[in-house]
Amino acid sequence: MSFTIYFLDPANWSIIGLIVTILVFAGYLLFFKTNTSQKVFMLLALSLIYMALGSPIGSLTSFGLHSITMLKQIVLLMVAPIFLLRAFPSRAANEKRLGSLYNWLPGETMGIKNTNYFIATWILMSAVMWGGHFLSAGKLSAQLGHAICGLSLQSNSWVTHVPNGLIFSILLVVGIIGLLPVFHPMPEKRLKPVQAVAYLFTACLVCTVLGLYVAFSATSAPNIEAVPVFDTVLSPLPMSLRTDQELAGMLMWVPGCIIYVISAVEILLSWYNAAPATSKKTTEHFTV
Amino acid sequence: MSLFINIPEDSEQLPSLKTGQGKLLWIASVDHKQIGIMYLWLALFFFVVGGLEAMLIRAQLAIPENTLISPELYNQIFTMHGITMIFLVAMPALVGFATYFLPLMIGANEMAFPRLNAFGFWITLMGGFLMYFSFFAGGAPNAGWFNYVPLSENNYSSAPGVDYYIIGLILTGIGSISAALNFITTTLTLRSPDIKLNMVPLFVWMVFINGFLILAAFPLLNAGLFMLLIDRQFDAHFFIPSSGGSAILWQHFFWAFGHPEVYIMALPAFGIISEVVPVFSRKPIFGYKFVAVSSIAIALLAYSVWLHHMFAVGYSNTVNSFFAISSMLIGIPTGLKVINWIGTMYKGSIQLTVPMLFVVAFLIDFTIGGLSGVSFAIVPIDWQLTDTYYLVAHLHYVFVGGVIFSIFAGLYYWFPKMSGRMLSAKLGKWHFWLFVIGFNLTFLIQHILGIIGMPRRIYTYPDLPNWELMNVLSSIGAVFMFAGMVILFWNLYTTLKKPRSAPEDPWDAWTLEWHTPSPPDLKNFGEIPRVYSRRPLWDLKHPDKPDKRLN
């Protein structure tokens, strides 16, 4: 089956998922007063989530493609949360509707000034980035019967009982929590620009190390060449396990980092554009 | 957490040549200006050494089948030439400028850690001399500046040269790390309370970002060097494939350091250009924020491109493709800077002083180096041209056209401030024209030599069509460069013999270092003017039309 035929086959598109996506977007439009860019961000976020979970691309994981699992992880943990957070207006614009909602956001309830909060969100996001990857790789390994990314699990392993929906939900929720310090809908609740860049940079290091590990461990895995390419011949995207694993690592690394780099650049440009605060100093000179 | 941490000044009088008599004070001094000058002298000294090595290389290659020097000595010379120019010339010169001018540009009187500053200099000097001592201890390093294993393992390099390379680079690496710590801490803690972080001069910003690059990159190199030392001295096998090690692992260590190292040298050089261009175009920098922000993008992306140095290793198309993409991406912020500098010059009242001439040469030659660099991001081209003279040409266009030209621009620009004397513009122009013409004659033609198949690091070559002609032209160009350098040294010598006569601000510049005497006193500032914008001296000189207030 060619990828085009597979992609255009209606059976591979989730109609329920599409309806849910449209309903959520309609609800968003009705419930919040938003500007055009926020609407676009919400549309992008929902479209990406749908593409990851309800489209034929998302279904490619049933053919055992590790790289597609990684792609889902990138979308749910790293990209969609940014768009979602940017889609929500600040409370000032929607005081009545958002007041109670934002109270549930960790930054509000735990105290945004608390450095431990940033460390906790960073650790949580990093742990889920790595944990989510190995959980998904383990599930794939149990499903296919051979090692994925160094993990070789039995078909009756406990990981097979972890619902995919739960993994995806955790990725999305943790993605939102992890990126709140940088993209909180209320600007005053965000980290200062340079601190936000440092936060993103260190997060970038985490996805870099994960991506490198996944990509380069493919070369050293002794059994990876033993699994011939016809193992995935039914897949609309046939590729060797080695290529699949390298692609998975590279996807996490390069696009993953670029997401953070672009975000960091945008934050810094806003920082340079920011209007100066009124100076309280009045003396003409001071001695050092 | 504030980004400005006000640290009270040390009340203790720190040792300096300006506080006492005696030659030991050259060693004891922790005055950042003194140390900055010593870094620059160190760089100049090794520039002579590395330059003489280059002349030997070009003499050997001027004609085919030449036997002027032996293959063994040739290997040592090209290895030491590379190491010297990168670790003992470009790095110390840029660190020297930063050590001297970073505190002055942010209104500070000293570096945050003055003794660490001195330690960094002396350990760098120690590392350099140790590497050169190897010539007298059984032979210098001879495995190339990146010292690939297994060639550099005991089986193939049993002479101690590689051990001197390892220990020397570990020492210079520690020196660089200590300098980086100082730059970051000084910028964060000692700048004038008026100066917000988004107001600092671009040179300071680049050095600040560069500090993080150094802190992340040099430990990678030093880790790899320690592992190699353990391999060689204690019979371990980190990098010996026959014993279960990985030769490729060394390449990963080296290039994960090595590519950021290109930007470690380029960012301060960009900072110098960003200071010189506005002053001699009589315009504020065009797109300050883009120049500043693109540095962050470069710093982040610098760590995602190293495998393009290893395309020939044989990684899969998947891996190569992603590294090719990221290598091309890093060209975007770099290209953006070039556009900003040209934008600054556009419709400016350009003064073609010697520093500005070097900037113009930089813009042309660094762009050529950048474009040939992009060609190396294309995997099939890399496979074809790697380890040829095309690569030699590319890296020299980046390192000389990009970094050394900037250092020359900085030297002519800041020399009056450092010495209280103006370098001769006439001799400076002779230096400029001889060096730039010589540089392009030497290296432009090497692109073609590489394309027609001349490998790098061969000590001689057969008499193939056009090879001799191009190599002779290349060697003639090197003579031009040598003559240019002789003129620079003559200029320095004659200028330093003259009495101090340079005014405080000979270029009518705008940053704080020009608000001090030339040269500055031991305590840089008795009184710092209030700073409201990125051009504090412009505001002082033109109170009727000051820049937009930023604090």
Question: Can you put this structure into words, describing what you see?
Answer:
The complex is a heterodimer of chains A (288) and B (551). Chain A is mostly helical. Chain A contains eleven helices and one strand; from the N terminus they run αααααααααααβ. Chain B has one domain: Cytochrome C Oxidase, Chain A. Chain B has helices spanning 24-28, 32-61, 71-105, 114-133, 161-189, 202-234, 247-281, 288-301, 317-329, 331-345, 354-376, 379-385, 389-419, 425-451, 467-497, 536-541; one strand at 527-529. Classes of the chains: A mainly alpha (288), B mainly alpha (551). At the A-B interface, helix 10, helix 11 and strand 1 of A face helix 8, helix 9 and strand 1 of B.
DSSP strand content of chain A = under 5%
Tally of separate domains of chain B: 1
Spans of chain A of at least 5 consecutive residues whose pLDDT stays below 50 are 279-288
Kindly state the number of beta strands of chain A: 1
User: How many helical elements of chain A?
Assistant: 11
Residues in helices of chain A, as a percent range: 55-70%
Q: What share of residues are in beta strands of chain B?
A: under 5%
Q: Calculate Rg of chain B over CA atoms.
A: 23 Å
List keywords for this structure.
heterodimer; A: mainly alpha; 11 helices; 1% strand; disordered C terminus; B: 551 residues; Cytochrome C Oxidase, Chain A; 16 helices; globular
What order do the helices and strands come in, and which of them pair?
The complex is a heterodimer of chains A (288) and B (551).
Chain A: H1 3-8, H2 15-31, H3 36-53, H4 56-59, H5 66-87, H6 95-103, H7 106-110, H8 115-144, H9 164-183, H10 193-220, H11 241-273, E1 285-287
Chain B: H1 24-28, H2 32-61, H3 71-105, H4 114-133, H5 161-189, H6 202-234, H7 247-281, H8 288-301, H9 317-329, H10 331-345, H11 354-376, H12 379-385, H13 389-419, H14 425-451, H15 467-497, E1 527-529, H16 536-541
Helix pairs in contact in B: 2-3, 2-4, 2-15, 3-4, 3-5, 3-7, 3-13, 4-5, 5-6, 6-7, 6-8, 7-8, 7-10, 7-13, 8-10, 10-11, 11-13, 11-14, 13-14, 14-15
